[in-house]
From TrEMBL:
This is Endospore coat-associated protein YheC. Keywords: ATP-binding, Nucleotide-binding. Residues 135-373 form the ATP-grasp domain. InterPro entries: ATP-grasp, YheC/D. It comes from Paenibacillus cisolokensis. It holds the Pfam family ATPgrasp_YheCD. Transmembrane segments: none annotated. The keyword Nucleotide-binding applies. The keyword ATP-binding applies. The gene is yheC_1.
Length: 386
């Protein structure tokens, strides 16, 4: 029996199939609709590569009714519902920006476990504050972490200004793709706020005094958990913010390996550089060599990969088994690297955008090879009968 690997997503959507250029459109004609998954291209690649590895890759998503779900299999290039399959391994790619979506995914995992044992391919990291507190206990990693404190209203902002100066970054403790990030700095005697909204749209505000700034920040943050850090000069000579993403994945032998790395460049003056906020990727090694010289760049990238390997093992020791983790690094104007974030559900679109087809392919196949290894370790699974 083939190993069934389920990609857990928060839901599906139907998109219209637009006619080709040569096709006439009748007035009032309704467009056909096509079923689409979140990360649709990634899910399709997993299904295609999985078939070549004798793995049955399906997509599952929770139904609105608690504990029920839908299963989909790729057949002749289309997603087709195939009944409530019970997976052997679950690959959690549920991002669930809304609390209800994530809650339904968690409920579904509990329901699946009650019907049949399965293996979770990769654990989920806690919030950024917990990850920061964990990593700073390790001497090799602690110097890479920016000074950080938790936001707790006006008093914490004033404390951060005293400790870090008058240029601060506030970021959601559970944020993603740069949404909700705020930079507060003093410019010409006024407090200027720049950042990205919950919809990932850039904004700029200015306040004459601290009271107005603090009140606006309080309303913007609401009940969300936030962190405060000093603003680090992580921009190139043209003022474009950049970071370096390293994708670490388990291979078919269960060992951590670097799949690939990429520089992400933002717009001049922007607070973030991630691709969802309009950033563009560059090949990491080539860009670093142009910026720092060949020897310095190779040493820097080698150290970053080594630190990423150590950080992956460290997080795994503390939070359970992982199949992959993406690490984001900033490099300040003095050439000092900073570990900014660890992401247990990393994207991989930068490799394809760069034309790095080998890294793009490896980033899809590695989780499948590791899933197959886990399947052999925990075999035999119970029969897949709902």
């Amino acid at each position: 029996m083939r190993l069934v690997i389920a990609i857990l997503t928060s839901g599906t959507e139907y998109v219209p199939i637009l006619p080709g250029r040569s096709e006439a459109v009748r007035p009032g004609a309704a467009f056909q609709r096509k079923l689409r998954m979140p990360e649709d291209g990634f899910c399709r690649e997993l299904a295609v590569y999985g078939s070549g590895l004798d793995l049955d890759v399906v997509v599952i998503c929770p139904d609105r009714a608690a504990g029920e779900w839908h299963s989909y299999r790729l057949a002749e290039g289309e997603w087709q519902e195939c009944g409530p399959l019970l997976p052997d391994i679950v690959y959690d790619r549920c991002f669930g920006c809304q609390a209800g979506e994530r809650s339904r995914c968690r409920t579904l995992l509990k329901t699946l476990a009650e019907h049949k044992p399965f293996v979770l391919l990769s654990s989920e990291l806690p919030g950024k504050w917990e990850v920061y507190r964990t990593l700073r206990r390790y001497p090799e990693l602690a110097p890479l972490l920016p000074p950080t404190m938790r936001y707790d209203g006006a008093a914490s902002l004033r404390a951060a200004a005293r400790a870090y100066g008058d240029d601060l970054i506030l970021k959601p403790a559970a944020g993603m793709q740069g949404r909700g990030i705020i930079r507060i700095r003093t410019v010409g005697g006024r407090l200027r706020l720049t950042g990205r909204s919950r919809l990932n749209r850039p904004f700029t505000l200015s306040f004459a005094d601290a009271i107005g700034c603090i009140e606006w920040t309080k309303r913007f943050i609401g009940t969300a958990h936030y962190l405060i850090q000093p603003y680090l000069q992580l921009a190139d000579s043209s003022g474009r913010p950049f970071d370096l993403r390293v994708l670490m994945q388990k291979n078919g032998n269960g060992r951590w390996t670097e799949t690939g790395s990429a520089i992400r460049l933002g717009f001049p003056g922007s607070v973030t550089s991630n691709l969802h906020g309009g950033g563009t990727p560059r090949p990491a090694r080539a860009w670093l060599r142009e910026t720092y010289g060949e020897t310095a760049a190779d040493d820097l990238l080698g150290n970053i990969v080594r630190w990423s390997h150590t950080a992956a093992e460290t997080l795994e020791q503390n939070y359970g088994r992982f199949a992959e983790i993406g690490f984001d690094y900033g490099i300040d104007r003095n050439g000092r690297p900073w570990l900014l974030e660890a992401n247990s559900k990393p994207g991989r679109q930068s490799f394809r955008m760069l034309g790095d087809l080998q890294a793009a392919k490896d980033s899809v196949i590695q989780p499948l090879l590791y899933a197959r290894l886990l399947g052999r370790r925990y075999s035999p699974f119970e029969t897949n009968v709902s």
